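Structure tokens please, single chain.
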Amino acid sequence: SSCTSQCYKSRLLLCNVQELQKYKDVLPDQDTHHDVQTLDKTIATLETELSAARTLQESLLNGSPVSEDFKVSESIGRRKYRMVIGINTAFSSRKRRDSIRYTWMPRGEKRKQLEEQKGVIIRFVIGHSAIAGGIIDRAIEAEDRKHGDFMKIDHVEGYLALSGKTKTYFATAVSLWDADFYVKVDDDVHVNIATLGQILSKQAWKPRVYMGCMKSGPVLSEKGVRYYEPEHWKFGEPGNKYFRHATGQLYAISKDLATYISINKHVLHKYINEDVSLGSWFLGLDVEHIDDRRLCCGTPPDCEWKAQAGNTCAASFDWKCSGICNSEGRIWEVHNKCAEGDKALWNSTF
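Here you go.
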């Protein structure tokens, strides 16, 4: 039965974790730091799988309904990908999506080649309207039939619900694709895919990685201001700053962290600002925060000068607009001056 096989899988995973822990304890002194961290990642991955298996086992034993996420993640022999890039978008952002399709995101057969040859999945992430199946949802369905580049998630769209959308995106993505990293990017940001892949690939052997441009902004307690924090009292005295977290335009997390979100999604607290929410979910965990400023370059001339100096940016946007200002038109300028070029993408190894 499914319950018996799940019990066996749990015991097998537990034995693997225990054996690796014993091996780590007796590693000779001459073993390198890299070897230890690689072993740590293996243990972390197995522990994450063990946690998921135990959750599923308990559901089966209690006769509780099993979520689709677990059913999908149970599939055997899934292809391994380098990264999944989820582009956060809204119903009203058709022009932004088209501007991305005709600049940094491969379309049609080239996008499929990117998946098959480079292990990179790219999708626009969209939920549904409060009245599912309405005219707005039908417009997205028509757009998806034309381009086939949407990832539809079980989430009611709305700006004030971004924390919930982020949580659902990671939980859904990790159930659909087995990747090293899961990336979230806004639809008014320019991305160089090969550069991003190369940055992430250097961290792929580490466990529990949270990467982005780390910041610590003020906790705003005044109603009516942008980025107002309704739960400001939780962060101490007035004038305090948030804990360090990645800015929301683009960030990446490793598979074990995405799996952690998927398993615990029903109890993870949602703050009003989604980048703060994500950072809060990792506060009590043994997570490595990696600050890489190539993930938050400015638009020309900033990214242009850096590209000319051989330090190509992975992501570019305007801080003052929290994205590229008037991105539907200006993303072309950014792409023309700061893009890594097609050859860089197809000749890259990451």
